[in-house]
Amino acid sequence: MNAQGQTIKTKTIGEFVQISNFRPSNAKSLACAHYLSLNGWVSGHRRAARKRKRWSTVLINTRTNERCVLGPSVTSFAQAHNLCTGDLYKLINRRKICYRGWMLESTLKLAQGAVAGSIF
Hints:
Elements: H1 13-20, H2 24-31, E1 37-38, E2 41-42, H3 49-55, E3 58-61, E4 66-69, H4 74-80, H5 85-92, E5 102-104, H6 105-113
Antiparallel strand pairs: 1-2, 3-4, 3-5
Helix pairs in contact: 1-2
């Protein structure tokens, strides 16, 4: 997965080297999950699943309806949108539901799907 969130599949490491301009040893280390990420790329290995999930997290601003992918750096996302990094981490780790109008896309879908029913 590259920094834009696109998953690129290749049959050989040589094909990946041509696409990414990595040295073959670095490409092999990325493929085998010795490196979970390298220069804006995330490994496709099962051990890197948590990192891929974090990179592809979608945040939605409920005030402006802006939809953004978190990307490789939480800190740079926070600086770009004038947010506190600590509070953004709390939002991502689901310790906060909403922070300055930003919500996780999954949380927003659950909130929209919730229907008030009768208590009795």
